[in-house]
Amino acid sequence: MRPLERIEGREKVTGRARYAVEYPVEGVAYAAAVQATVGRGEIVAVGTAAALALPGVLAVLSCENAPEVNAVDDGELALFQSRRVSYRGQFVAAVVAETLETAREAARLVRVDYVSEPPDVRLHPGHPGIYKPDRVNPVFPADTERGDPEGAFAASAVRVDATYTTPAEHNNPMEPHATLAVWDGDGGLTLYDSNQGPSLVRDTAAEIFGLGPDRVRIVSPHVGGGFGSKGTPRPNLVLAAMAARAAGRPVKFAQTRQQMYSATGYRTPTIQRVRLGADADGRLTAIVHEALEQSSTVREFAEQTTTPTRVMYQAPHRRTAHRLARLDVPTPSWMRAPGETPGMFALESAMDELAVAAGIDPIELRIRNEPDAAPESGLAFSSRNLVTCLRQGADRFGWAGRDPAPAARREGRKLIGMGVASATYPAYRLPNRATARAEVDGTFTVRIAAVDIGTGARTALTLIAAEALKAEPERVTVELGDSDLPRASVAGGSGGTAGWGTAVVRACEALLPMLEEDRRPVEASADTTAEIEAQEELARHAFGAQFAEVEVDVDTGEIRVPRMLGVFAVGRVINAVTARSQFIGGMTMGLGMALMEESVMDEEFGDYLTRDLAQYHLPACADVRDIDAFWVDEHDPHLNPMGSKGIGEIGIVGAAAAVANAVHHATGLRIRDLPITPARMLTAL
C-alpha cells in the first residue's frame, strides 16, 4: 500500500474537526464537579444553599438528591449513589449552570461535611491486605508455574535477584475526558463523548440509565487521544447525562486537567521482584517474576504485569505471579501497553544485569535464550522475529563499537553509555461488523463504529478498503466514530486495525461480486465473529528491539538521550507514515517513563500532588533529539486478511529499560526505581 497522509489532517489543523464538547447545541448548560476533600469517610451533609442562590445556577446534584441509576461492573460509574467516600478527589456533587464560569464558582460554594477516616494509600510489600486476584487483565491467570523454579534458581551458576519499582503514571491526552449530553423528548439519549469505543460506551450508558441500546447514541468522530484511559466510560459521561436530565436541557461537562488525575484511571505503581538463573553460558535455567500492584476499594483492576515474561525467553523452570492491595485510591486502569510496559522494564533490566554477571553481550544473551515455541503455552508462534530486530538494530545503532565495560566513555562532565532491551505485545483481533456500499457516482462508503483516537485509524481503514475494492483511496470514504454504525470493538490492545480491518475487508469482498452486475447503489455487510472463533490457536505477538544512548552529567545528575532507535516486527505495515508516528510516539512515552513521569502520592491526605502538566513532567521536543523507528519485512499469514499486527503500543514497551540499561553502562550504577531523576542519579553517583 502506498503511504497516505492523514485523511482528516486538514480538518484538524484548520479547527473544523469537532471534539466532544465542541458541537453547537441550542440551550446548552454547563456542569462542574465537586471533589471529595477527604481520603476516606462518609458524607454527613451537603450544603447547597449558597450555590443555588447564585444567579444562573440550574441544579445541584449529590448523594442527597441524585436519581438512582443501575449498577454496572465498574463502581466508579455509580455516581452520587452512596455517601461513602472511597478516595480523595472522588466526585461527590455537581453543579449545573448557564455558563461554565458560573458552574465552577457555584461548585466552589457547595459545602460537603464528612466524617473522615485516615486513608490507606501506600503500596508496600508488608501491606496486610495483599492477596492473589482470580485473574489479571483481561482474562489471564494470576499465577503460572512450570518445573521447580526455586530449586533451579538456587542451583544456577549465574544468578540475578533484584527488585524494580515503577510509580503511578497518568495518561494525559490532549483532549480531556468530556461529554455533551442531550436527552430528546422521547427519553432517548445522545452523548457526544471522548472515548475509545462507541459501541461499548453505548451499551454501558444504556444499562446505567435503564434504556434499550437503540435509545442511546454515542457520537465520537474525533477523539484527542486516550492511551487507554478512554477505553471504558468514565464518570464524566454519567455526570453529564445525569445533569442534563436534572436541568432539562443539554449539558456539557469537561474534566479539568487536575480532575483527570483522580477520575480517569492511571497506571498502577508496581513492585517487581525478578530472579533469573542461568548456566555458565548464559542459558536460562530459571525465571521467577513476581509483581505487587494496587487497586481501589471501588473496583478491582489487576494489571497483567508479568504476562510478557510468559512468552519472552526459554527456561525449563519458571513462575510468574501477581499480588494486589486494595487501597483508598482511585481505580487504576489501562495506560499504553498495560502490563507489558512495567513488566518488560523489570524483565529487560534483569536480563541486562544477567548479561553483566555472566560476562556476555546483552544482545547475544537474548539470542541464546530465544525459544522455539511459546515457553509456557507450548503454542507455535505465528511469527517471531525478535532476533532479526536485535541484529538489524545493532547494525543500525553501531552496537559493535560499544565498549562493554561500564563507565568507560567520558567526554568532559558527561559519562556516555548504550543500552538495549527487547519489546513484545500480543497481536489481538476481536469480532467486528462493517458495511461497504457502492455509490452511484462510482465511489464507495465503508461504515464501522470504530474510532480514531489520533492513531490514523481512519486513514488505515481507507487504505485497507481501497485495496480490497481494487480502487484508489480517493474513491473511498470511511465513516466511523458513531454507535449507530455497525458494531465495533474498542480502540485498545493494539487490536483496532486488525479487528476492524478484517470486517472491512470481508464487507468489501462481499460487495465486489455485486459490482459485476453493475447495479448501484448496492451494499454488502460482514460479521467476523465466526471467522475469529474458528481461527487456529497460535501464539500471536509482535516483537521489537529498543536501543538508547545516554549522557549523564556527573555534576548535576541530569540525563540526556541523544539517540533512540526502535526496530519492530509487526507483520505488514498498513501505512508507513502513521506507523512511524505511532512507534516514535510510543518510544517518546517510554523516554518519559524512564526519566520523568511520576504521580506522587501525598500519604497524609491521600491525593496526588502532581496534578497538572507543570508538575507531572513529560518529554518535550528538546528531550527527544534523534529518535527513529524501522520495521523488518515480516510475512505472517495467520493474523488477518491484511497480515498486520498492532503497532499502537509496542513502541513504548522496552524503551524505559533500554534507557536504564544505558545509564548503567554509562555510569556503572544500577538504578532500579523509576523515574531516574537527577536527584536519584546524584545520590547514586
Summarize the structure.
The protein has 685 residues and is of the alpha+beta class.
CATH class of the largest domain equals Alpha Beta
Q: Gyration radius, to the nearest Å?
A: 26 Å
Biggest pleated-sheet summary: 7 strands, mixed
Number of domains: 3
- Architecture per CATH nomenclature, i.e. the level-2 architecture of the largest domain: 2-Layer Sandwich
Number of helices: 17
Q: What is the number of E strands?
A: 28
Percent strand = 25-35%
Which characteristics define this entry?
Aldehyde Oxidoreductase, domain 4, 685 residues, seven-stranded mixed β-sheet, 17 helices, five-stranded mixed β-sheet, 28 strands, globular, Aldehyde Oxidoreductase, domain 3, alpha+beta
Description:
- This protein has 685 residues and is an alpha+beta fold.
- It has three domains: 12-118 and 176-223 and 230-263, Alpha-Beta Complex (Aldehyde Oxidoreductase, domain 3), CATH 3.90.1170.50; 135-169 and 266-427 and 538-684, Aldehyde Oxidoreductase, domain 4; 430-533, Aldehyde oxidase/xanthine dehydrogenase, molybdopterin binding domain (Aldehyde Oxidoreductase, domain 4).
- The chain is 25% helix and 25% strand.
- The chain is built from 17 helices and 28 strands.
- The strands form seven sheets. The chain has a seven-stranded mixed β-sheet. It has a five-stranded mixed β-sheet with strand order 9-17-16-15-10.
- β18 (410-411) and β19 form a beta hairpin.
- α9 (340-358) packs parallel to α16 (655-667).
- It starts with 8 loop residues before the first helix and ends with a helix.
